[in-house]
């Protein structure tokens, strides 16, 4: 007997509903891919710079890490130190093309900043739900710390 037998309309309704729900779930789970150049279009990434001393062992300074390419776009951070301690970590570039990126980064970036300042290194935990951003943040942070001589 065929699954879509006309004598059993309930089966057709159930199968059609299941197919529609499955299709909608697949469609909504897709995220459009944007190239890194499109993400950064119109904005020029800040050049790596350091002020005062070449290393954070003494004095103070600011260094911008290399941009880390992630699945959803580049992540780049800038670190500031004073008397050998990190005093600020700022994300200068991160994915923000759509509302989902904005939502994720609105809670992930402050948490990553707090952890970096507490750890005084790039040895920080991944934020749940923001794995790619966390990995890129960690890579760029390590790049900045390496440039600063830490």
Structural class: alpha+beta
Q: Separation of termini?
A: 72 Å
| Low-pLDDT segments, ≥5 res | 34-56
Domains, number: 2
Count, helices: 4
CATH topology of the largest domain: Sufe protein. Chain: A
Second-tier CATH architecture of the largest domain: Alpha-Beta Complex
Describe the structure.
With 150 residues, this protein is an alpha+beta fold. It has two domains: 1-30, no CATH class; 37-147, Sufe protein. Chain: A. The protein has four helices and four strands. It has helices at 9-29, 36-39, 99-119, 131-147, and strands at 60-64, 68-70, 73-82, 85-93. Strands 1, 2, 3 and 4 form a four-stranded antiparallel beta sheet that branches. A hairpin with a 2-residue loop joins strand 3 (73-82) and strand 4 (85-93). The model is unreliable at 34-56 (pLDDT under 50).
How are the SSEs placed, and which strands pair?
Layout lengths: L8 H21 L6 H4 L20 E5 L3 E3 L2 E10 L2 E9 L5 H21 L11 H17 L3
Antiparallel strand pairs: 1-3, 2-3, 3-4
Briefly say what this structure is:
The chain is α+β, with helices and mostly antiparallel strands and 150 residues long.
């Amino acid at each position: 007997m065929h699954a879509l037998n006309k004598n059993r309309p309930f089966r057709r309704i159930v199968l059609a509903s299941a197919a529609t729900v499955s299709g909608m779930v697949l469609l909504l789970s897709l995220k459009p891919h944007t190239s890194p150049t499109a993400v950064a279009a119109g904005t020029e990434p800040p050049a790596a710079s350091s002020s005062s001393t070449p290393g954070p062992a003494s004095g103070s300074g600011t260094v911008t890490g290399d941009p880390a390419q992630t699945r959803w776009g580049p992540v780049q951070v800038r670190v500031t130190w004073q008397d050998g301690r990190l005093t600020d970590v700022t994300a200068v570039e991160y994915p923000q093309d759509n509302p989902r990126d904005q939502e994720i980064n609105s809670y992930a970036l402050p948490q990553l900043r707090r952890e970096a300042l507490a750890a005084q290194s790039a040895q920080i935990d991944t934020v749940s739900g923001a794995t790619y951003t966390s990995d890129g943040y960690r890579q760029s942070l390590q790049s900045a710390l390496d440039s600063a001589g830490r």
